[in-house]
Amino acid sequence: GAQAVGAHTSDEAVALCLVRHPRGAMTKILLMLALALGAAGLRWPAAVPQRRATSGRAAGARLERAVGPVAVAPVEAPSVGRSSESAVDAMRGAAEAPSPFKKLMAANRAEIAVRIMRAATELNVATVAIYGYEDRFSQHRWGADQSFQLEKKDPADAAVRAYLDIEQIVALAKREGVDAIHPGYGFLSESPEFAQACSDAGITFVGPTVANLKTFSDKTTARVAAIAADVPVVPGTDEPVTTEAGARAFVEEYGLPVIIKAAMGGGGKGMRLVRDMEELGASFASASTEAEAAFGDGSVFLERYIESPRHIEVQIIGDGKGGAVHLCERDCSVQRRYQKVVEIAPAWSLDPALRNKLHEDSLRLMRSAKYLNAGTVEFLVDGEGRHYFIEVNPRIQVEHTVTEEVTGIDLVQAQMRIASGASFEEVGLVQDQIQARGIAVQCRVTTENPERNFAPDTGTLSVYRHSAGYGMRQDGIGYSGMTVTPYYDSLLVKYTARGSNWGEVIRRMTRALQEARIRGVKTNIPFLLNVLTHPEFKAGVVTTGFIDEHPELLQVTGKNWDFANVHQADQEKVMQVEKLLRYLANLAVNGHPKELGANPARLRTAPQPQVKPPRVLIPGKDDAPTAGRRPGGWRSLLLAEGPAAYAKAVREHKGLLVMDTTWRDAHQSLLATRMRTADLVKAGAATNAALSNAFSLEMWGGATFDVAMRFLHECPWQRLQRLRGGG
User: Fold this and answer.
1) Residue 633: which residues within 8 A CB-CB, separation 6 or more?
2) Which residue, among 261, 292, 286, has the nearest Cα to 158 in the 3D structure?
3) What are the Cα distances from residue 190, in Å, to 390, 599, 675?
4) 292: left (phi over 0), alpha (psi -120 to 50) or beta
């Protein structure tokens, strides 16, 4: 503290600081340095360049040129004469700020509900979760201080309908003393009716105003607002289209191709690309039906389709009074079925002039709307570098994690504090101090099978082990033993990697996906590895057509990657080792599976005959010539009288001629690796006696040569010669 520093010399003060307060020692030393600089008339540096890890790869070099040096946010130096205690208080900042609310409900499910409640808990806010019956074992339920099941009005309704019941959710929140509701993304997050119901109940809606939602949740009114703000747009319908005739009228005026989009909501739901007029009717109907199921509103709108653009979005936070800041941009061009798969922040390969235009247009639009809270302005960028507004997502987004990682700003907590009335300055949202540091990449891991057109998979997670390590973050809901159901979205976990350059962050994400162990259901991890290791993606510039243009990305069976660990490089080897370990573990615990053996119910006790021990054969006696036994065996006839006599004797023989294969089978199994020639010779005479009346004796197989030399280190030809000669 200031008294301790004032009572000692500067050197003594530093020593006391290190001894008495080791955890805060470095902070106090830096503050003292700041005071000394101020007293000497020197200025505190406005920004300190970040030390960057260098990469020999071209991608890393391009990043250095594209983004330039990355700087931390400037730190205001304490004024001369200011005590170190007041300086510490200033730096302590939000750590001592009051909680924005008493109790907050996450009106959503799965990973975003968990994200919201964690952010609230850090702000010392009590949390409430809601869940449908089908979600009763979801992790987000037990991550809250309280959780309540939602009832469907009609038991036959789809599982998602419970999360769309505004009346029930608001009534529950009011009954439980909730003073704020965060809607997350999807479901009711863009519903002006929900925001209004919260307001009417005296509950703060952590999101935009009702007026903002009416403007931007409907893509047609958002388009009108963009035009009014002088933001370039793609030719499209100015109002929602509810009939096929309206869609045909637009196509006849503007031509094909067109894209149909849900007027309310996003996430790729209700989107269809139409290239042929004959496809229009079916595409319109399916888009409308999907939009109705996902958002409760089947209206759609149409736009001219831009071939293979880049998809760039700008993260905005508004204060509701005409002020807004941007938190840089994200590149979301890697998409499948119009749903984002991999997201990158910032869009490091963008031309700097284009980046500035995107920021300026986004801020102008949101400031003109007096936008409140977090939102994203989305653009398409064509091959000529021209950008077009497509929509505003008036909510937090799935990919918000990459922005948090590069800016150091907790977007969800910022949402809560802005909703509680805090100013930008109180939250720390000053535009000049918001800069991207390094690069972050997010991969969405879903329970889908890439080789079956990404069909959702269901089942029980037998293994669920996360990746971790420096620069890695995971947001998910999985656990070993969890049942993946078909009722909701297939997103299981989001991995976010952070690095100082493009090459580093791709290597880190690749390692994390290699390390992840999710078993029991199919996942898209092999597909994501295909994307991350593709030369075009590694070069840093891809378009929304990337996946469609490279169908080989969907091939995962038999896929090999260029990894040093051979058991990680081959998908089959990874699964083979784990299958064997699981089988052995199950065998040790539960015994031999009944289904692999006889059916116990069909077993019966069989009579056990009395078997007499075999009589010991005596050479010279038991192989003596008799009426049924040829002296010397059949081979002696062949040697003595030749092939003709041998063949004649065989034809004239009235009995059964038997070939014995006992020695051959033994030579290729137990005897081969356990008995040497010397041991086998000892059984030769008894064999002659036992089989003297046999037509032939087969004693060799091809494997005999191999095992004699490799296992017993004996000459197979010598063995054959000795056994034939009887010694």
Assistant:
1) 688, 692, 693, 694
2) 292
3) 16, 59, 80
4) alpha
Reduced to 3 states, what is the DSSP secondary structure of residue 438? Answer: coil
Coil, helix or strand at residue 659 = strand
Q: Across the chain, what does the average pLDDT equal?
A: 82
Residues 26-60: b if buried by 16+ CB within 10 A, e if exposed? ebbeebbebbebbeeeeeeeeeeeeebeebebebb
- Would you give the DSSP letter of residue 442? E
Length in residues, the chain: 727
pTM for this one?
0.66
- Residues near 154 by Cβ (< 8 Å), separated by ≥ 6? 161
Contact, 250 vs 408, CB < 8 A?
no
For tokens 């319908």, name the residue: 237
Residue 473's CB is within 10 A of a number of other CB atoms, namely: 18
User: CA-CA distance, 70 to 49, in Å (whole number)?
Assistant: 6
Please list, in sequence order, all residues whose beta carbon lies within 8 angstroms of the beta carbon of residue 194, skipping any fewer than 6 positions away: 107, 166, 169, 170, 183, 188, 205
To which residue do tokens 């937090």 refer? Answer: 396
Tokens at 495, concatenated: 């991995």
Q: Report how far residue 716's alpha carbon sits from residue 708's, in angstroms, rounded to the nearest whole number.
A: 6
Residue corresponding to tokens 């009716």: 193
- What does R_g of the chain's alpha carbons equal in angstroms? 38
Residue 261: is it exposed, middle or buried by C-beta count within 10 angstroms (0-12/13-18/19+)? buried
**φ/ψ bin of 691: left (φ > 0), alpha (ψ from -120 to 50), beta (otherwise):** alpha
Cα-Cα-Cα-Cα dihedral sign, residues 13, 16, 17, 18: positive
78, 38 in Cβ contact below 8 A?
yes
Neighbours of 399 (CB within 10 A): 25
* 3-state secondary structure at position 85: helix
User: Does the annotation count 395 as an active-site position?
Assistant: yes
The Cα–Cα gap between 345 and 441 comes to: 7
pLDDT digits (tens, 9 = 90+) for 676-700: 888 888 877 777 777 777 888 887 7
First to last CA, the chain: 100
Q: How far is CA 619 from CA 278, 429, 692, 726, in A?
A: 93, 104, 10, 12
What is the reported pLDDT for 47?
A: 37
Catalytic residue among 223, 272, 395, 437: 395
In angstroms, the CA 55 to CA 563 distance is: 18
Predicted confidence (pLDDT) per residue in 538-589, tens digit: 999 899 999 999 999 999 887 888 888 776 777 777 767 677 777 788 878 8
Alpha-carbon span 450 to 547, nearest angstrom: 12
Cα-Cα-Cα-Cα dihedral sign, residues 239, 241, 242, 244: positive
pLDDT at 59: 37
pLDDT band with cut points at 50, 70 and 90 for residue 605: low
d(CA 557, CA 618): 62
Contact 510, 562 (CB under 8 A): no
DSSP assignment of 487-537, as one string? SS--EEEEEEEEESSHHHHHHHHHHHHHH-EEESS--SHHHHHHHHTSHHH
Distances (CA, A) of 6 to 9, 32, 35, 81: 8, 11, 13, 12
Helix (H) or strand (E) holding 331: strand 324-336
- List CB contacts of 545: < 8 A, sequence separation 6 or more: 307, 308
Whether residue 346 is preceded by a cis peptide bond, meaning omega within 30 degrees of 0, is yes
Q: Is the pLDDT of residue 30 over 70?
A: no
239 CB-contact burial (10 Å; exposed 0-12 / middle 13-18 / buried 19+): middle
- pLDDT for position 240: 85
